[in-house]
Amino acid sequence: MNLKRLIIFMFFTTFIFIFYSTLAISGETVYYNKIKSINPEMVDGQYCYVKIIIKEKDDRIIKEEILECADGRHKFDSPGYWEMFAEFYYRDVNTPEYCRSYSRSGHAFKSFGKVCMNKDGEWERK
């Protein structure tokens, strides 16, 4: 009978510990949870980047340099590859749409579909 009480006590203690540790961790927002941790010695401490923000305030230009590190808790707010590509590709008014074909295996006739990129760098199905 004493062993049964000990097992029940250990179970509830473990449950309470897991519950409180989950509450403590849940306050931190992690945007990219599949980030491989980097040893600072392996990269000479260079796993951070400097984000430069240039603002104009009261006829003055202000340059801010913010150091952000790759720990998954910051969103990368610069344009991605396709946004930059769309900005470069659609710089002219007479440029045709940038489209690609893709296979539709679930389609009745197994025909190809078509997706085109808009000027914001987002793919749209046509």
Structure notes:
The chain is α+β, with helices and mostly antiparallel strands. The protein has a domain of 48 residues. Helices cover 26% and strands 28% of the residues. The strands form two sheets. It has a three-stranded antiparallel β-sheet, with no helix packed on it. It starts with a helix and ends with a strand. The model has no long low-confidence stretch (mean pLDDT 76).
Radius of gyration in whole Å, from Cα? 26 Å
Distance between the termini: 70 Å
Which sheet architecture does the biggest sheet show?
A: 3 strands, antiparallel
Low-confidence stretches: none
Instruction: Report the strand count.
Output: 5
Structural class by SSE content: alpha+beta
How many helical elements? Answer: 2
One letter per element, helices H and strands E, the order comes to: HEEHEEE
Q: Please tell me what the overall shape is.
A: flat
Task: Give helix % range.
Answer: 25-40%
Q: What is the residue-averaged pLDDT?
A: 76
Range of strand content:
25-35%
Give, in spatial order, the strands making up the sheet with the most strands.
3-4-5
Keywords:
2 helices; single chain; flat; alpha+beta; two-stranded antiparallel sheet; three-stranded antiparallel β-sheet; 126 residues
Give the helices and strands, then pairings:
Elements: H1 2-25, E1 48-57, E2 60-69, H2 81-89, E3 98-103, E4 112-117, E5 123-125
Antiparallel strand pairs: 1-2, 3-4, 4-5
In short:
By secondary structure, this protein is of the alpha+beta class.
